[in-house]
Amino acid sequence: MNTWMRLMANDGSIVFGRIENGYLHEYEGLDQPVPTGAVLSLRTLTPLAPCAPGKVIALWNNFHALAAKLEKPVPAHPLFLLKPAESVIGSGEPILRPAHYAGKIAFEGELGIVIGKRCRNVSVEEAEASIFGYTIVNDVTAAGVLNENPHFPQWCRAKGFDTFCCIGPTIISGFDWNSARVVTRLDGVERQNYPIADMVFTPAQQVSLISQDLTLEPGDVIACGTSLGVGSIGDGATVEITIDGIGTLSNTLAATRAGTQAVAAVVGAA
Q1: Taking the CB of residue 102, how many other CB atoms lie within 10 A of it?
Q2: Where in the chain is the domain with CATH 2.30.30?
Q3: CATH 3.90.850.10 in the chain, residue ranges
Q4: Class assignment of domain 2-47?
Q5: CA distance 57 to 104
Q6: Residue 245: exposed, middle, or buried by beta-carbon count in 10 A (0-12, 13-18, 19+)?
Q7: Is it true that the peptide bond before 150 is cis, omega within 30 degrees of 0?
Q8: What would the pLDDT profile of 80-139 be if each residue is shown by its tens digit?
Q9: Distance CA 121, CA 128 (A)
């Protein structure tokens, strides 16, 4: 297995590479995994989300246990929505409550698939070879927005706010997802602990089937869906999602709203 991260240098430039013994061995990029020869100390770098997806495909009803609890049939094709690139943040970055929204905000701990090669109408075998590696995703939702309009469930809006897709802290290539578990803790209290092997569609099946609907590009992420234990995040609370072998993704819901923070930033800069 190899560990990959994306980080910011002191001059503001962004570097990507393989982590080994406290150093980053720089590569051209996720889509061009060719070493540049540069070796940088992690002490001089600031971690970011480990990839910059053009889109995040988030699955719904992809675990047998949750489907049984919801009394929903297992789907024949992945059911998904899209989260925009602007929703992505890394581990340690704050989740911002949307301006003018005081309702429930929910967490969902999930495995994330990181695409390494362009995929369009690929077979399961080709899909397997197109997976760069795996990461962790917190698929955040403004639950009150979802059914705000009785005529149109607002999945993309409820899940697409800025900072509502936490990804990280690393990408692991060669990861054995089949024997791993997702463990989610809210302020240190365990809320989710489920086996990834309970997925309806395997990662390769997800990539293959979704590629029949839309083109997947290098760096895109598929959030594999969640299982039992989804809950709400209070302002100031911290969600930690752990998958052994990948690490822990940790994010705190900021006590102030996004609009308030933006105003404060403008005032502070004046």
Answers
A1: 10
A2: 2-47
A3: 55-261
A4: mainly beta
A5: 23
A6: middle
A7: no
A8: 999 999 999 999 999 999 999 999 999 999 999 999 999 999 999 999 999 999 999 999
A9: 13
- 146-158 pLDDT, tens per residue? 999 999 999 999 9
Rounded to whole angstroms, what are the CA distances from 34 to 29, 45, 191?
A: 7, 20, 40
Residues whose CB is less than 8 angstroms from the CB of residue 91 and which lie 6 or more positions away in sequence, other chains included:
47, 49, 166, 168, 169, 247, 248, 249, 250, 251
Q: Whole-angstrom Cα distance, residue 242 to residue 35?
A: 29
Q: Which two tokens stand for residue 163?
A: 């900072």
| pTM of the shown model | 0.93
For residue 14, what are its two tokens? Answer: 């962004």
Pick the CATH number of 55-261 from 3.90.850.10, 3.10.20.310, 1.10.287.1120, 3.40.50.300: 3.90.850.10
- In angstroms, the Cα distances linking 98 to 20, 102, 120, 141, 260 are 38, 8, 35, 11, 9
What pLDDT score does 33 carry? 86
